[in-house]
């Protein structure tokens, strides 16, 4: 008896558009039972798989780097492993691939639509692209990957409309409709049914560039320069990570992050952290995009077997990691000194 093919949803969107938040919401829905999640991140330290709340054997972190090249092999291997587990009787009814915010979706789609191993067990169920209503316009102006993500979507989800001006939202909607005439534009709280079962991917009705991007991938013309350094996307973009063994003073971290986003916001494409804060026994999540810094979240508990070290991951544009490191060290030291003097 031939098994039914497992649907694969590609979840994409530029840095900080809200993919992990959407994923956590989706995974709680009954129709997502038996869903395996593959996560790809940009940077030396993977964090997102720790932030996806359904932390069991079905969350797989693909090697950090861009899905466009180094990770394509990893994607095929991970899908092959999942298919073997499904054959052996494990319930895997659906797969979600969450891409790094810097990923070009063309190679991923090309892999899912043409790799014989993948095609034997899976069918592409659609591309869901998140677009941030605050930073979306500027991102589309400056990042070709963001344009590709929007143009190749089967479903477009607009996030952060509550903190964007109505004019910005209207302008962004018009631009997205021109970039992608066939994808419905959905709100951030769209139910799973609106995002899933989008049907086979087709270039019909899309802007002509989509077909040519896929064509280029088919002939292997993708970014060879990435192979030299998976953490560098174009000359100005790089990821850097910091790990701290001792609990951090909240005053120092918060003040420094505020200063950094105010003064160098354009250069902070993304910051995300899982922090051990002094005096707080649960992990604190911080995240921001350019000039927007979101209120910190406190998770219910540390992930199992976690060593409770603080981890901060940045994706920077035209800003040296050393500048970030020195500023952080100075603020943390100052906050610790202040604490000490209060104790006397």
SSE order and pairing:
Layout: E1 6-13, H1 19-27, E2 35-40, H2 48-51, E3 59-62, H3 70-87, E4 94-98, H4 105-114, H5 116-121, E5 122-132, H6 136-142, H7 144-151, E6 155-159, H8 166-179, E7 185-187, H9 192-195, H10 209-218, E8 237-244, H11 250-264, E9 268-275, E10 284-289, E11 292-293, E12 297-298, E13 310-317, H12 321-343
Parallel strand pairs: 1-4, 1-5, 2-3, 2-4, 5-6, 6-7
Antiparallel strand pairs: 8-13, 9-10, 9-13, 10-11, 10-12
Helix pairs in contact: 4-10, 6-7, 11-12
Provide structural commentary.
- This is GTP-binding protein.
- There is one protein chain.
- The protein has two domains: 223 residues, 3-Layer(aba) Sandwich (Rossmann fold); 107 residues, 2-Layer Sandwich (Hypothetical Protein Yjia, Chain: A,domain 2).
- The longest helix is centred in the C-terminal third of the chain and has 23 residues.
- The N and C termini lie far apart (75 Å).
- It is built from twelve helices and 13 strands.
- By secondary structure, it is of the alpha/beta class.
- The chain has a seven-stranded parallel sheet with strand order 3-2-4-1-5-6-7, sandwiched between helices. Strands 8, 9, 10, 11, 12 and 13 form a six-stranded antiparallel sheet that branches.
- Helix 4 crosses helix 10, helix 6 crosses helix 7 and helix 11 packs antiparallel against helix 12.
């Amino acid at each position: 008896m031939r098994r039914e093919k497992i649907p694969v949803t590609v979840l994409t969107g530029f840095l900080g558009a809200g993919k992990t938040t959407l994923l956590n919401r989706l995974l709680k829905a009954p129709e997502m039972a038996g869903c395996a999640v593959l996560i790809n991140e940009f940077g030396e330290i993977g964090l997102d798989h720790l932030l996806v709340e359904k932390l069991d054997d079905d969350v797989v972190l693909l090697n950090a780097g861009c899905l466009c090249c180094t990770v394509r092999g990893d994607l095929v291997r991970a899908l092959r492993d999942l298919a073997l587990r499904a054959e052996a009787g494990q319930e895997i009814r659906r797969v979600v691939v969450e891409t790094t915010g810097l990923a070009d979706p063309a190679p991923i789609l090309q892999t899912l639509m043409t790799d014989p191993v993948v095609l034997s067990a899976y069918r592409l169920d659609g591309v869901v692209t998140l677009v941030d209503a605050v930073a979306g316009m500027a991102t589309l102006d400056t990042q070709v990957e963001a344009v590709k993500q929007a143009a190749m979507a089967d479903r477009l989800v607009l996030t952060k409309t509550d903190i964007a001006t109505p004019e910005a939202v209207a302008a962004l909607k018009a631009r997205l409709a021109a970039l992608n005439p066939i994808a419905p534009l959905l709100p951030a709280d769209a139910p799973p049914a609106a995002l899933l079962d989008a049907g086979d991917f087709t270039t019909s009705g899309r802007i002509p560039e989509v077909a040519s991007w896929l064509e280029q991938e088919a002939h292997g013309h993708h970014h060879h320069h990435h192979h030299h350094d998976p953490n560098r996307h174009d000359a100005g973009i790089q990821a850097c990570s910091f790990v701290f063994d001792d609990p951090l003073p909240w005053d120092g971290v918060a003040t420094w992050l505020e200063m950094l986003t105010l003064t160098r916001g354009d250069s902070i494409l993304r910051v995300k952290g899982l922090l051990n804060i002094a005096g707080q026994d649960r992990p604190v999540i911080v995240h921001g995009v350019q000039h927007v810094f979101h209120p910190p979240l406190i998770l219910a508990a540390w992930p199992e077997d976690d060593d409770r070290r603080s981890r901060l991951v940045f994706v920077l544009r035209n800003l040296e990691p050393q500048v970030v490191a020195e500023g952080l060290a100075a603020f943390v030291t100052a906050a610790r000194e202040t604490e000490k003097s209060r104790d006397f």
